[in-house]
Design goal:
The chain has 333 residues and is mainly β. It has 2 domains: 18-246, Jelly Rolls (Sandwich); 256-332, Jelly Rolls, CATH 2.60.120.10. It has 6 helices and 22 strands. The strands form 6 sheets. The protein has a 7-stranded antiparallel sheet, with no helix packed on it. Strands 17, 18, 19, 20, 21 and 22 form a 6-stranded antiparallel sheet that branches. The radius of gyration is 20 Å and the shape is globular. The two termini are 32 Å apart. Residues 259-332 form the Mannose-6-phosphate isomerase cupin domain. GO terms for molecular function: isomerase activity. Keywords: Isomerase, Metal-binding, Zinc.
Length: 333
């Protein structure tokens, strides 16, 4: 059966064909991007690819299904037709026919700008969108690679602006040297930057709103600096010190909690052998393979998930197995 033969109607909510959904990555060229996403199996069209959007429903950026009978359909069409089957009862009641999360891999060849994201209230007021709470799972880091997250000490708008004007803002911000397996949770309003030499998986609310406040004075090929959002950021910044690095357990074949927030829950599963998953159907689950290979066994069929791949398990699939030797991130709401 081909996707063009399937009846996808806005009112049709029966006869959903349930299976693990994979998507064609949306690759984003960035001034700070590089070539490392090729190590995650991405086919790169340039040497400055900074982001691979794995599952997205953000404006015109819609992920297209790459496998099974729904191949070549976009996520919006499928959710419109089958919201409860895909999203789950709880998510459909809360978010309607929106996919509430955005999943990415990032390759920072050079430093990203120092930036932050607004909370839900401010984002709704200014942009009619969600805020952007996010987390990072470091997959690879060059020796000495670092990230910037929050202030070293409680600050203020006045101190922040003084250092911004003097181009000394990094001196009052906290740096972390990072390695593979490090996890960070970035609440809205937290000033931050990913340093060069890092590949990471990012899980976030569905939003692409970023307030860029300092970009290391770099310019593009035409000699132009990127736009800054200093005035908009003032009200959005949290000037208090935040605890952002997450310590976590690594018990084999267990769902080790990384982040539990109102916006998403993320577990780390070091898989060796088989793990049974049973859900209540209230929410979809997303699995990200950060190393190794994992088979997903659902209804007697086997679907393989390799390092650098992401899969959406529709909420209607309530029982399945993970089997293999892999490190897996499990995400739901």
């Amino acid at each position: 059966m081909d996707s063009k033969d399937i009846n996808i109607s806005p009112t049709k909510t029966t006869n959903f064909i349930a299976y693990p959904l994979q998507f064609t990555p949306i690759l984003k060229d960035r001034i700070w991007g590089g070539k490392k996403l090729a190590t995650l199996g991405k086919q790169l069209p340039s040497d400055t690819i900074g982001e691979s959007w794995e599952i997205a429903m953000v404006g015109d950026d819609l992920s297209y299904i790459s496998n099974g009978v729904y191949a070549n359909l976009d996520i919006e069409k499928l959710i419109t037709a089958f919201p409860e089957e895909i999203l789950g009862t709880k998510i459909y009641e809360t978010y309607g026919k929106q996919f509430p999360l955005l999943f990415k891999f990032l390759d920072a060849k050079t430093d990203l700008s120092i930036q932050l994201h607004p909370n839900d209230v401010l984002a709704k007021k200014r942009h009619n969108t969600f805020g952007k709470t996010e987390m990072w799972y470091i997959m690879q880091a060059d020796e000495g690679a670092r990230i910037i997250l929050g202030f070293k000490e409680n600050s203020s708008a006045e101190e922040y602006l003084l250092h911004l004007d003097n181009k000394t803002l990094p001196t009052i911000l906290k740096e972390y040297r990072v390695k593979a397996g490090d996890v960070f949770f970035i609440e809205t309003g937290t000033i931050h930057a990913i340093g060069g030499g890092i590949v990471l998986a990012e899980i976030q609310q569905t939003s692409d709103i970023t307030y860029r406040v300092y970009d290391w004075d770099r310019v593009d090929e035409s000699g132009n600096q990127r736009e800054l959002h200093v005035d908009m950021a003032l009200e959005a910044i949290n000037y208090k010190v935040k605890q952002t690095k997450i310590d976590y357990s690594k018990d084999t074949n267990e769902a080790n909690l990384l982040v539990k927030s109102p916006f998403f829950v993320t577990n780390y599963i070091p898989l060796q052998g088989t793990k049974e998953i049973i859900t209540d159907g209230s929410c979809f689950r997303v699995y990200i393979c950060t190393s190794g290979t994992c088979d997903i066994i659902a209804d007697g069929l086997v679907y393989t998930l390799k390092m650098g791949e992401t899969v959406l398990m529709p909420a209607i699939i309530r029982e399945f197995d993970l089997k293999g030797n892999a490190e897996i991130l499990e995400v739901y709401i």
